[in-house]
Amino acid sequence: MSDEIMIECEGLTKRFGTFTAVDHVSFKVSKGSIFGFLGPNGSGKSTVIRMLCGLLEPTEGTARIAGFDVTQQIDQIKNLIGYMSQQFSLYDELTVYENLMFYGRLYGLRGGELSRRRDELVALTHIEPYMSRRAGLLSGGWRQRLAMACSLMHKPSVLFLDEPTAGIDPVARRELWDLLFEFSSKGMTLFVTTHYMDEAERCTHVGYIHMSKLIVCGLPDELKRLPEVNPPGTKRRDVTCEHVTMAMQVLRHMPGVKSTTVFGQSMHLLVDENLPEERIREELAKAGIKQVDIRPIGPSLEDVFVALTAKMEKAK
Amino acid sequence: MNKIFRGFTAILYKEFIVVLRDPMTLFFMFFPPLIEMIAFGYALDNDVKHMPMVILNEDRTTESRQVIDNFVNTQTFRVVGEVQSVTEMAAAIRKGKAYVGLQIPPDFTRNLRAGRTARVQVLIDGSNSTTALQALNTALGVTLRQAVVTLLAESGRSDIPIEVRPQVLYNPAMRSPNFFVPGVIGVVLQIATTFATAMSIVRERERGTLEQLLVSPLSRWGLMLGKLTPYLCIGMAMAVGLFAIMHWLFAVPIAGSLVALFISTLVYVFALLSLGLLISTRAKNQMQALQMSMTLIMPSVFFSGFIFPRETMPWIFYSIGSCLPTTYFIELMRAIILRGASLMEFWQHLVVLSAMGLGLFAICALRFKQKIA
Q1: How far is B25 from chain A (nearest CA, A)?
Q2: Which residues of chain A make contact with B372, given a CB cutoff of 8 A?
Q3: Do residues A259 and A293 both lie within one domain?
Q4: pLDDT in tens, A48-95
Q5: Cα separation of A211 and A194, whole Å?
Q6: How many Cα atoms sit within 13 Å of A261 on the Cβ side?
Q7: Is B371 in contact with A55 (Cβ distance < 8 A)?
Q8: pLDDT single digits (tens) A97-115
Q9: Between 3.40.50.620, 3.40.1710.10, 3.40.50.300, 3.30.70.2190, what CATH number should domain B51-155 receive?
Q10: Are B317 and B231 within 8 A, CB to CB?
Q11: Min Cα–Cα distance to chain A from B51, Å
């Protein structure tokens, strides 16, 4: 990661009629980082990506890719960026091989250069066995790999991925992220939108957009230390026990417990700093829950986003 | 040059594969035009031959039978039955059994021999004005000629005082297919090609692949030309087929040069495809694109001079016709195929067609927004 800023937007705004899809969003992404852009459906994630790729004209504000303005210097930007859209836009009638060749040619690759780059990406994505299959007949995971390979044919410096893991099986998801880390280590800047909190945890930087506004942006660890996330006089505890949903019902109404969230076999509690762990054990024992393991934990990114969204809603 | 059409070869490569790999599109491009061509070609026939005719012969002499024979000998009429009364004759025409009724009254021969005017009544079904007109003209001609021959015999002259010797040029047999089929080719080509390009960009927009093209350095001219070229090749292949049908099935001779024929067709198809592209940049979905291209076919059928002569049209329809590529193409085709005209003699038409094609193409490239909203 270097200090070179690859993506920069300042007061970026997009209005469709009276509806404001993106409201004065500003952030910077430096070279080689993986920027995770999170937010619920309809919050404006795709609109931001589309403005950064030059597909939509911003209503207000500016955006720059590698120093080039997206409205004024789009021609210089086009060769620098790759874009993998939500639905992995491929030509279903074309085979895997033909899709690769088409996207390569679209970016002006010819002859030896084209076939070399194609072979590189085939090796990287392991799509070799499907070369002569039509894209329309590929499964979701393979479609995603092909779409990725297609968007990388011209060696972009910045790659935009709009929900690249939506509807993909866990193995393919893991492998995609392995690839993303590899690209990032080679200096490529990645801008990824996602719904998944675990994916957000893997990013070097995250931004959270809610109701068209960028609520927070920064390094995951910094965000977890924000005072809004760690209200003074509170601590977080992980409680692992049997009958965890029943336990939650018990603890939810206990004085000193601010919030409870279940994570499979355990739950995360936000409690008063001076609430002793023994009190929690006693309360659970009353309900017949004996095997209880309590550990101190830090906030997750989800906690961060929940806390900040709640704060914003309250401010309204 | 390279920069203006950047991405052209990539789009061309992809479009050819997509088009050739989709048998349904190919089928719908080729099959309906062939059927339309054959159907139109046979249906649009103004040569009325052997119109059904009923006879009410109340005279029953050699002379009256001579009249009937003269009618039949023109080949315009054929006798489908004899009736016994005027009411019966009218009923036959009303029911559509006959177009024409020929009534020869009982005193026909008597009047003829006595040197008085012998009257023959001809009833014509006027509900179809084209056939009625032809029946009327033929009936008048037949009786007039017989009257003149009778007068000649009485006056002792052996020759007709004035004889017209008409010579019909370029279509001596006055066959309808020679007139209509070149026009049918123009209309059929429009039906088949315009919708093909009209759908193409809309389809990419619907599938989301257009976004992928828009983020690439592909230029708008490259995109448009790459989309158009494969269909130009298909359109020309189709034109070859249509000309073959015209020549072999409808026996229309091609008097002019094939080179002139194909140059005109190439320019025409280019204009049609550009029109389709223009629709494609405006339509929101494939349904709209289809409807728009279908709507544009109507004026080409009515105002291009394909069926109705443009000279007799009110000025508004005449002007609409002047804006249609089909108008110029049909005039070129009739000139080249029937009259053997050279392109030098019709260069204005070719210039207008080329200007339309290039103009439409430029408009859609310039109008095409490289944004999605």
Answers
A1: 12
A2: 50, 55-56
A3: yes
A4: 999 999 999 999 999 999 999 999 999 899 999 999 987 778 899 999
A5: 16
A6: 11
A7: yes
A8: 999 999 999 999 999 999 9
A9: 3.40.1710.10
A10: no
A11: 55
